[in-house]
Amino acid sequence: MKYLELTIGAILVYNFVLSRFLGICPFLGVSKRIGTAMGMSGAVIFVMTLASAATAAVYRNFLRFSVNGRTVDLGFLQVLLFILIIASLVQLIEIMLQKLSPKLYQALGIYLPLITTNCAVLGAATINAKENHTVLEATIFGCCSGIGFALALLLFASLRERLELANPPKAFQGTPIALVTAGILAMAFAGFAGLC
Amino acid sequence: MNLISAAAPLSVPASGAEILLWAGVVMASLGVVLGAVIGIFAKYFRVRSDARVELILELLPGANCGGCGQAGCADFAKSVVEGRNAPSKCPVSSREQKSAIARALGIEEEAGFQRRALVRCGGDLHHSAWLLNYNGVLDCASAALVSGGPKGCSYGCLGMGNCARKCPFGAIEIVDHIALVHPELCVGCGLCIAACPRHCIALVPAAATTHVYCNSPEKGIDKRKNCQVGCIGCRKCERTVPGKFTVEGNLARVNYELAPEELPTDADAVAVKCPTHALLSEQAHFRIEQNEEIR
Amino acid sequence: MMNKSSRSVLTFKGGIAPEGNGKDMSSAIPTRNAPLLERYRVLLQENAGKPPKPVVAKGDKVKKYQLIAAADGFVSANLHAPTSGEVVGIVRVPGPMGLMTEAIEIAADGEDSGDAPFAPLDWSKASPQELLARVADAGLVGMGGASFPTHVKLTIPPGKKVDTLILNGAECEPYLTADHRLLLENGEALLRGALTFGRILGVENISIGVEINKIDAIEYLSRIAADCGVRIVPLEVRYPQGSEKHLIRAIAGREVPSGGLPADAGCVVQNVGTAVALDNAVRLGIPLVERIVTVTGEVVRNPGNWRLRIGTPVIKAIELADGVLCEPGKLILGGPMMGFAQRSFEIPVAKNTSGILLLPPRVSMNYMPTECIRCGRCVQGCPMHLMPCLLATAIEGDRYDLAAQNHVMDCIECGSCAYVCPAHRPLVQHFRRAKAELRSRNRK
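Output (structure tokens, whole complex):
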């Protein structure tokens, strides 16, 4: 039951982009075309799952331990270590993507290494630490957060493709109308509140 | 080490020095492990990219206009390195840039003259007949489909701005329903040429400053019914300044194939004194179209 | 709007029913023959395909029905002299699309003499090949509007099987009554022509579709066609019933696939005027040099139907109708929905000119388009089941790829969407632009 709550919560109720407002940078930057949005979603799900698993494992085992009867609390290293792990994972995915799909690599451009500083990934890791998830729970939470991010991104990309053809007033053309639409999308997702 | 959960009450917290030690150990070991993993991946997934592509990309102006026929500057750089394209194909880069690229690749530089676009029409609202009450989309291609366009002349510029909207450098200005190309802004990428449904834009050498502003092959008498400033094919230019102008049928044109020094000058335009003001220096053309000087 | 399954009146889904169709001005007026004029300017190119090559030169004397331009290649039609006289030469006249185009000018000698150039045939005994050759020789083209050479249409590409022939007597455009008069006055020639078409194609399932606003024609034709094997099918009054694809849908119940031809649905559609012209070519041996044209519009003093020869300048046709009551707002060749507005009164009548329409200024006023409100009326009205609102938005944003994906090439430019749009958006103009753009891209 807990896993179901975790899943629905991460994807819909506490959607990372639309409820927690984390990861807005790629949300606005990569959502102009559905193709690139799908590529970015894949990358983020991959990074978030692995990052959550790795950071949870490190957090639970290497940040607080006892040796010779004395507890060593390295909690202050949390952010540093998490960023280190996330950065390495993103580097790995960059190397793999450059080899396996150069087109997607070019299309994502600067946003791919920006996943490193994406607060959504660090946010997932931090929430896992705060809620004291087990490694399995953390992995599921990370994966579902990624799926939630992908859902929001794909929905928004579809909307933006149609917005491109629309004719809003000059002051709204481009990013302004996209932000307004994002706000309305967030309001729509607020309808899930209270589900779990 | 015993694995314990947070805050076990029976243990004694470690001393500051120990914590520092363990912090260092944990960070270092994690760093080494991750570094090794990345290193292995980098070796396994290495992509062989030619460093020269990056170099060329730096040397290019980076306008991504597509004037070379490739998808963007990166694609053009790639094609030049692979030998499929010549550096001179980039219409935006200056002569110095083209030389630099050729030098970087160690290839011979192609001689080529800088070209720019010219709208071959002087028939704006005040100087040509606009016969029809056109009520439709303000787009040259759409207007040309409706009864041949609102202008009397079927070959002239309609002035609704397709070329101006297409130009990535903002070099085309629409004044009184005619398109004017500003030569100092135009780089000769050629995107406007495809946009014009009347095919009245041509690429001419940038060194040329005198042109014949007419695109219609119709007979002079028929042309005069529709436009005050069309070329009537009287051949006065051919006679006055031999060798620089050619009259084909009913339309005169400048011999753009001549060497830059031999192209017609502003003085030639004044000497010819074209009876319909179709043959003009660029400056005179601009003065008339922008200031509505009645000829 | 649903497809009526009742046996008596067939129709199709989509389309519009234009209010007040102006046909009453001329539908009861019998066709009159136009008097001989002094000059005729026969357009060389009036259709898709190559223009025929002139076979006469300046100064040549020609007889009525003589060949003056021969077809150039397969998709091209012969041209014949509408009267006897002297060839003045090749002149430039305004064409139907607004551009100057070439025409052969003939100065009439007043005698209007000329024999039938072809030997009369009996349609029931001649071979299909002979009849098909007669179609090409007589310069028959589709008289419904496109002027497509008929012999090309009757040559079915290998691999396609045709089992249904449909004759278009719908005349769905407002104001036009030329085909209506043809049905009433040339009924027997029409039936013979229909059977001749059937013989050429080897088809026995022949129908003539007529809208029920021409109930007198339906009754008359049903009477005389009683046992000759041709069915008269009443059709609901709906625009654009006269379109090929919609006649096939209504009468044969089949749909022509996207991007396909009627032959893909096993059908061939011909205009009733073409059938009568075929009968003349076969039975009397004369080529196509004249047709019934409706000269109408609120501006015209005496609207009516006239048998005009090809090459008659439009201004002369208007004089036959006793001129105009006031300054016309628009001159349209064809009907108000799909006809083309003209810039000159000198344009000559061609084989596909079904109507000369002069509209008053109050209905040809300028309108300012406003924003699309996504009301969906255009989607309801489109007979080809397209989404005009989406297509127009894509085209305005230069997204021709998106327009092509949404089947803009299937648009028949009927104008139903622009007619119902409350924002007066110039939808059909966008689509014509997109189709021209996509065609030129495909050619590259």
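Chain B touches chain C through 17 residues (CB under 8 Å).
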